[in-house]
User: What shape does this take?
Amino acid sequence: MAVAELERVWHRLRPLAVDKMMLAEPPPRGSRFGSPLVLSRVHWVRPQMVVEVSFVEWTPDGLLRHVVYLAEREDKLGRRGAERPTPRRVVMNLPRTPAAVIFDMDGLLFDTERLYQEAILLAAAEAGHEVAPDFFGRTVGLPWVQCRALLLSHFGDTFPVDEFEAEWVRHFWVIAETRLALKPGSLELLDTLDQFRVPRAIATSSSRRTVERHLTAHNLTERFDVIVGHGDYEAGKPAPDPFLKAAERLGVEPPLCLALEDSHNGVRSASSAGMMTIMIPDLLEPTDEIRGLCTFVVRDLLEVRRLILDT
Assistant: This one.
């Protein structure tokens, strides 16, 4: 089929989209939103004379979209009485069926990063300090020892960092008492993992006490087989240690684990552990480097659930 004809089919079928699927890859240079980057298949089915066009395109939200359109052949699309296109679902699979799923906690399972951000601003204002707008983003996914170093670098060596940390944490728990929320899709994903008896762990920079307190608040204590928190590993994220320790305690080889993360350092940690890694962005959007480390970048845990069901 000539390129010009493909273009005509594309423009006629585009309003009849029947499904979308997100892929985590950077755009090629020179790509334009709305233009097909790869037209992978055009298939004519007789006698129904249905055309299937499969392609991917770049979207403005930082993802490639894979779409399949089904419709009657182009020369019959505009005829009165033509039947509506038959929906066809596009299935994108993980490289392997996960034998275990390892969750980050803050910003992934619980919507806590925004609470920590609010708390640090309150603590700083209370003590008469000013926090740069981009400072908190640099702490996301880091253990306290690295956050401490960042605070000293930001405020100076004489800054009372330990006292400030205590006030930061105090403000956090006051806020969390009434506003600790699960991220969308958390319960649905856990239900699916229960259904298929997939073991799961939490690998976090937070303390075990904090993890248990959050899980208890939402009656989730019994829904995780393993908790790996600060103090359970030698080096924190972005080192692979937290995820490797979680896989070891689950008794599952790292390549068979699916790791779920929201932060750049978390993605680096999971990927360097050799795991299938999905990023669900929270406060930080993925960079080109981070996209390259991810198996997928998706919007929420409901998308993760669909990927598991489709694999």
